[in-house]
């Protein structure tokens, strides 16, 4: 389904989204609506993007008790996104409840949105995991374990760093999605991301989708940056 490039629309308003998307007119994109945009614009922003022909990943990272997640997902199923997510740290029962909610809320005759689980945020490193969160297993082990749990709970894939994509495929099978943020061109700053991978390397590692925000949204010429992304994903070097 869709292009492998998920464009993170991390903007505070619909107006800014429209301005950013103007150069892409006529090109169906796969876009991501996260907390910043959704909390300002609500479900209407998803409807708007779908009307423009874009596929939508609604990245709200639900993490709560199972009943709350189930009821929230029941509502989100009607918003019209193609992909939604939860935090795997909510556990097996919460992830199962997410799927139950989506199944219950999906209007008949339409596809239920795919649902994936965040393993470890790409801004997390070993030090943070051990010293701040007091999780004493190696980070990569926790990613593999959370992915297996998500798979057993009936989810369609995970959010992880592209570095972990081979492990995800090995543990959960080729069709289990590896959706990978923390993508940067080789000559860019990582900002708050830690587990960072270039577009070319992400493809080599087996990522199904790469999530790209600031490399596009803060580029002087976003269309040119998107073309560079396509070029490098396809194995090309920087021109
Ligand atoms: O582990 C995660 C989960 C989600 N994200 C989201 O992806 C984009 C990345 O933006 P960049 O500007 O390319 O860093 C952003 O919307 C995050 O909320 C993530 O980065 N890591």
TrEMBL record:
The keyword Lyase applies. The keyword Repeat does not apply. Substrate binds at residues 10, 32, 59-68, 122, 184, 193, 213-214. Its EC number is 4.1.1.23. Keywords: Decarboxylase, Lyase, Pyrimidine biosynthesis. Pathway: Pyrimidine metabolism; UMP biosynthesis via de novo pathway; UMP from orotate: step 2/2. One of its GO terms (biological process) is 'de novo' pyrimidine nucleobase biosynthetic process. GO terms for molecular function: orotidine-5'-phosphate decarboxylase activity. It catalyses: orotidine 5'-phosphate + H(+) = UMP + CO2. GO terms for cellular component: cytosol. The active site is at residues 59, 61, 64. Catalyzes the decarboxylation of orotidine 5'-monophosphate (OMP) to uridine 5'-monophosphate (UMP). Belongs to the OMP decarboxylase family. Type 1 subfamily. Homodimer. This is Orotidine 5'-phosphate decarboxylase. The lineage of its organism: Bacteria, Bacillati, Bacillota, Bacilli, Bacillales.
């Amino acid at each position: 389904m869709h292009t492998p490039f998920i464009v993170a629309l991390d903007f505070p308003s619909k107006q800014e989204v429209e301005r950013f998307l103007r150069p892409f007119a006529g090109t169906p994109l796969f876009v991501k609506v996260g907390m910043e945009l959704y909390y300002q614009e609500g479900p209407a922003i998803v409807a708007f993007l779908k009307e423009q022909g874009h596929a939508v990943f609604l990245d709200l990272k639900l993490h709560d008790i199972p009943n709350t997640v189930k009821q929230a997902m029941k509502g989100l199923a009607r918003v019209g996104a193609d992909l939604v997510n939860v935090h795997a740290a909510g556990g097996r029962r919460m992830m199962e409840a997410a799927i139950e909610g989506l199944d219950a809320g999906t209007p008949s005759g339409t596809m239920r949105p795919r649902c994936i689980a965040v393993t470890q945020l790409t801004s997390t490193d070993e030090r943070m995991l051990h010293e701040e969160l007091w999780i004493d297993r190696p980070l990569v082990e926790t990613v593999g374990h959370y992915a297996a749990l998500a798979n057993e709970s009936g989810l369609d894939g995970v959010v992880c760093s592209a570095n972990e994509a081979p492990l995800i495929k090995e543990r959960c099978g080729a069709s289990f999605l590896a959706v990978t943020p923390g993508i940067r061109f080789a000559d860019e700053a990582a900002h708050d991301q830690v587990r960072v991978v270039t577009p070319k390397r992400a493809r080599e590692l087996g990522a199904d989708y790469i999530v790209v925000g600031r490399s596009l949204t803060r580029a002087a010429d976003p269309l040119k940056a998107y073309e560079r992304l396509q070029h490098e994903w396809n194995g090309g070097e920087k021109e």
